[in-house]
Write a structure and sequence with these properties.
By secondary structure, this protein is mostly beta strands. The chain has ten helices and 54 strands. It has a 22-stranded antiparallel beta barrel. A hairpin with a 2-residue loop joins strand 20 and strand 21. The N terminus is likely disordered.
Length: 991
């Protein structure tokens, strides 16, 4: 909290130092109507002041320190009619935004004259986003800062759920066009983000708060200038940039969850820095524990180590507090003649609590549809999940405009995302037997993710007309730490083993402690891991725009790119074991196993408790055993060098072609040990030459038809190659790597029709097709029960249809004069997706083909938004629905694990006060609060679906009877988790 207050103080001081409330600003952008890009070096004149300036390299102009009044702006650009914008109203302390669109003269025009328009202040940034999307060189979707602000999104993963063809898995991983996280790339301000996960190729998009975003773009078709490692989408996150005027804002909010807030909470003693999402060292490996490879093998020495180590296994009881969110941001802009310097800084902090219960079941004989054996429940567990999530972030962006042709910027963002769980598990193993074993287990699981990303970027327009140079140098660092995942396991028989000779301890819980083994089945286990990855990247782009043969607008672009990544991963597994030797002079005291968690591993129960005497053996307690395997650590590096050539040609006013080739040379190395102590050394070198073409036909000023083809690829991630195996307490699966993975090659084809009626409205329809060669998937191993690994399958296809629409109600019903309907916007997007994976030659597969892992047959988003700027009211209702999808690919021993589709419904109400400087916001999230269900399909034929239900299944799922869908009366439910509704309110002030 001290850090938060310090930053607020600095922001207020900077704001107060530079604020000027007595004058106004006219600013905007000079835009080429044909390309949608800014026109540099356009002459912009403020007529009343006889002041002339040139637009900068991005086409931006700015007149500041203007008194109240009405002004006229005149824009001149060679070869285009002059634009005169009159009636521009300027008020003190406000910015009036006027974007000027310059168009070439009509083909039959004999002279270039002047065009006079009346000024209309732009208040809807969706219009700018639509213009950018219309003139983009590739197929994609954009979310503006205004759309993000009007939604209920609290982090970037919430924003992604609103994009056409996108959904979120596990509340943080992106699935685009039915392709899971490993087929999507993440970039922040132009720099790649490394994987945030130690067990998958993925980035956790819940890391960045939504209020730090300026916009979010998903590119779905490749161009030569873009990195080629994606198939679903290239997700580009852009943080807020330099403000147009000085400001300071502060926001405070709270939240209530219907099944969590003020309810009973079970937790444990953590560290003093948990409130900031960082472990203070209290969970780290004790100093008395020798490094791996030097740990003593002698059991007596291990007993002495146990006596020097102090651990706390107790739990505490309390109540869940309300959620809390704080945010402060500020920025200023200062001019020094033609030079301009600006900065924006922000600090955000949120802490949220959740409690839910998960029913976990596993089954025997549930795979083979022709098996004569009936399905039998093996395990029946109930998990009570007590979770604290923390998200803190800091942003500091700076820009220095040297002149209208040269700008240098420095952008920085730092994010901390932590999750602190206490999971209480109860239930039975061999639940269907006459005397099942009851389980009582706890897991204390703290995970801290820290991400820094910084970019130094330059944009330069050379004096020679048409030349541009852009460069970027970036650095990112991801540190993922699990300082101590501790597990306790107790068990007992449900009834007496021998009723005729009962032993009271038969029905008392005893700790599952091994004599020498450390692993998931035993209590007293402690897991530590540290994943550190850094990435350095650089990029240089040279562009030259000209008119070929005097009439064809063309841009030639070449560039080079370099990225160097380094990862160091190390895990440690320790556990308490019994100290005693059968027939020796020390025997373990079995009575210790019946002690509760907060007493069993106390200091007095470590090592030799009672020495041998009078011929009787000594009494032993616990020793500390190192269960770390040689494969629990690895080092990895990779270097990517790329170069591209891209041409952008316009033929007449209708046709535009963006085409070229990108070459990527990739080197990857990984070093580790296998469990047999043999060395694993992977060294890969691969050159890929990847062509692409995007063709755009402009049917009219508002309509485009796009056709694109490209080759992209997907490479194995370090974790997928490493032999390290991690036990996930929540899923009961072990995840391991596969060192024989190959990179996948993807052929992509897109056809899109899009029209932009104006006023921020759009309609689009896209057909896409993808062919994969050697795609990589996560799959359960047929040779090891309960273990998941990664594999190449020979081929796969992915195809579908995307529909998107955004319109004003007044336009739909032809009621443009209605102020009410003019304030109502409806929007929706629907994706219908199919995929087929060829697994006919893959050992352990149940069938010859199946859908891609993570692919839903449909994704649906819709909403309605009411914006009344006059009375400062806003209401937004959003719905998101995702169909069922394979969560884990199965085999002949374990069937596919499916995730049932769910519907999310969110509502937001906003009210502005104090002339727009204050705003109250109320969010209601997950109104339907549907359970999350994972299931195994049991192959039983479904009843015939008719009518609307059959039609829906046929169109959206591809199967009239929905044979793969969840039927609670037939299928095996593996997991079921309940969720509550969340009510949150916030108030913000802007000065």
């Amino acid at each position: 909290m001290k850090i938060f207050l310090s930053v607020v103080t600095l922001l207020v001081a900077g704001f107060a130092f530079s604020q000027d409330k007595n004058t106004g600003v006219i600013q905007g952008k000079v835009i080429d109507s044909e390309t949608g890009e800014g026109l540099p070096s356009a002459q912009v004149e403020l007529v009343e002041k006889t002041k002339r300036i040139l637009s900068d390299i991005e086409g931006i102009y700015n007149f500041d320190k203007l008194e109240n009044g009405t002004y006229t702006v005149k824009v001149l650009y060679a070869g285009m009619p002059t634009q005169i914008v009159n009636g521009i109203q300027v008020k003190s302390g406000e910015i009036t935004t006027i974007d000027v669109v310059m168009s070439p003269p009509a083909e039959d025009s004999t002279s270039i004259g002047e065009i006079v328009v009346s000024a209309k202040r732009i208040t809807d940034t969706d219009q700018g986003v639509v213009l950018a999307q219309k003139n983009a060189i590739s197929v994609g979707d954009v979310m503006s800062s205004q759309s993000i602000q009007r939604s209920t999104a609290s982090n970037t993963s919430d924003v992604l759920k609103m994009v056409s063809g996108a959904s979120i898995q596990d509340n943080k991983f992106a699935v685009i066009r039915g392709l899971n996280d490993r087929y999507n790339a993440a970039f922040l301000n132009g720099s790649p983000l490394p994987s945030s996960e130690s067990d998958r190729k993925a980035f956790s998009f819940d890391m960045f708060p939504s209020n730090m975003l300026d916009n979010l773009t998903i590119t779905k078709s490749a161009t030569p200038e873009q990195p080629a490692e994606f198939a679903g989408g290239l997700i580009q996150i852009n943080t807020k940039s330099i403000p147009e005027k000085n400001f300071f804002s502060f926001q405070v909010g709270g939240g209530y969850n219907t099944i969590t807030t003020f309810k009973d909470r079970t937790s444990y003693k953590g560290g003093k820095m948990d409130w900031l999402g960082i472990d203070d060292g209290s969970r780290k490996i004790p100093a008395a524990v020798a490094p791996f490879g030097q740990y003593p093998l002698n059991i007596h020495e291990q007993a002495k180590v146990a006596q020097q180590v102090s651990t706390n296994w107790g739990t505490t009881e309390g109540k869940f507090l309300p959620n809390l969110s704080l945010q402060a941001s500020g920025g200023f802009n200062k001019k020094f003649g033609k030079r301009e310097f600006g900065m924006i800084a922000a600090l955000t902090y949120s802490r949220s609590f959740s409690y839910n219960e998960t029913v976990r079941n596993s089954y025997l004989n549930s795979t083979d549809p022709n098996s004569s054996q009936s399905t039998q429940m093996e395990n029946d567990y109930l998990d009570k999940n007590n979770v604290t999530n923390l998200l803190a972030g800091a942003l500091a962006n700076f820009a220095f405009k040297i002149n209208e042709r040269n700008t240098i910027s420095f952008k920085n963002i730092y994010s901390i995302n932590s999750s602190d769980k206490l999971i209480n598990r109860t239930g039975a193993t061999n639940a269907m037997e006459s005397n099942p074993i009851l389980i009582r287990s706890n897991a204390r699981w703290f995970t801290s993710d820290r991400v820094y990303s910084g970019q130094l970027e330059g944009q330069h327009g050379l004096r020679a007309k048409g030349f541009k140079v852009n460069w970027l140098a970036g650095y990112s660092n991801v540190n993922r730490s699990i300082p101590n995942l501790s597990r306790s396991v107790y068990s007992r028989n449900k009834t007496f083993i021998d009723p005729s000779n009962p032993d009271s301890r038969d029905t008392m819980y005893s700790a599952n402690i091994s004599t020498s083994s450390v692993g998931p089945a035993y209590g007293g286990g402690m897991f530590f891991s540290e994943n550190k990855e850094s990435s350095v990247n650089s990029r240089l782009d040279l562009a030259y725009a000209t008119d070929l043969f005097g009439k064809f607008k063309s841009e030639f672009k070449i560039g080079v790119y370099n990225q160097v990544r380094n990862r160091k991963f190390a895990a440690r597994q320790l556990g308490y074991t019994k100290y005693g030797v059968s027939g020796g002079n020390v025997q373990f005291d079995e009575s210790l196993l019946y002690l509760p968690e907060d007493e069993i591993f106390a200091a007095q129960n470590m090592g030799l408790i009672e020495p041998a005497a009078n011929g009787n053996p000594g009494k032993g307690g616990f020793k500390l055993t190192d269960g770390t395997k040689p494969s629990d650590q690895y080092d990895a590096q990779s270097v990517l060098n790329a170069a591209y050539l891209q041409l952008d040609n316009r033929f007449g006013k209708r046709f535009r072609f963006i085409y070229g080739v990108r070459a990527e040379y990739f080197q990857q190395e990984l070093t580790s040990l296998k469990d047999d102590l043999s060395e694993l050394k992977i060294s890969t070198k691969k050159l890929d030459v990847l062509p692409s073409i995007n063709a755009i036909f402009e049917a009219n000023k508002r309509t485009n038809v796009r056709l694109s083809y490209s080759q992209t690829l997907n490479r194995p991630e370090y974790r997928e190659l490493a032999p390290f195996a991690f036990y996930d307490f929540t899923t009961n699966f072990v995840v391991s790597g596969n060192d024989s993975l190959k990179r996948a090659l993807i052929h992509n084809l897109d056809l899109r029709y899009e029209t932009f009626p104006g006023r921020g409205q759009l309609f689009s329809a896209t057909i896409f097709y993808k062919n994969f060669i050697n795609p990589i998937e996560q799959k359960s191993r047929p040779d090891v029960v309960g273990e998941i690994s990664f594999q190449n399958v020979p081929s796969a296809t992915n195809y579908g249809l995307e529909l998107e629409a955004r319109s004003l109600i007044s336009t739909i019903f032809g009621m443009d004069t209605s102020s009410l309907f003019d304030d109502l916007t409806v929007y929706s997007n629907l994706s219908i997706i199919r995929s087929q994976v060829d697994v006919s030659g893959v050992a352990g597969s149940v069938a010859d083909s199946r859908p891609l892992q993570g692919q839903s047959p449909y994704v649906f988003n819709a909403g309605i938004r009411y914006d009344n700027t006059r009375n400062q009211w806003g209401v937004a209702l959003n719905v998101n629905r995702v169909g069922q999808r394979i969560y884990i690919v199965g085999n002949v021993n374990e069937p596919d694990l499916w995730e049932q589709g769910r519907t999310f419904l969110d509502l937001q109400i906003t009210k502005g006060f104090w002339k727009g400087r204050a705003q109250f916001k109320l969010n209601i999230q997950n109104i339907l609060a549907q359970d999350q269900i994972f299931y195994q399909n049991n192959f039983t034929a479904r009843s015939e679906a008719n009518g609307l239900n059959g039609f829906f299944n046929t169109i959206f799922i591809g199967d009239k009877n929905n044979a793969k869908g969840f039927d609670k009366d037939i299928d095996q439910r593996v997991w079921k988790t309940n969720f509550g509704r969340t009510f949150s309110a916030s108030i913000s002030f802007r000065l």
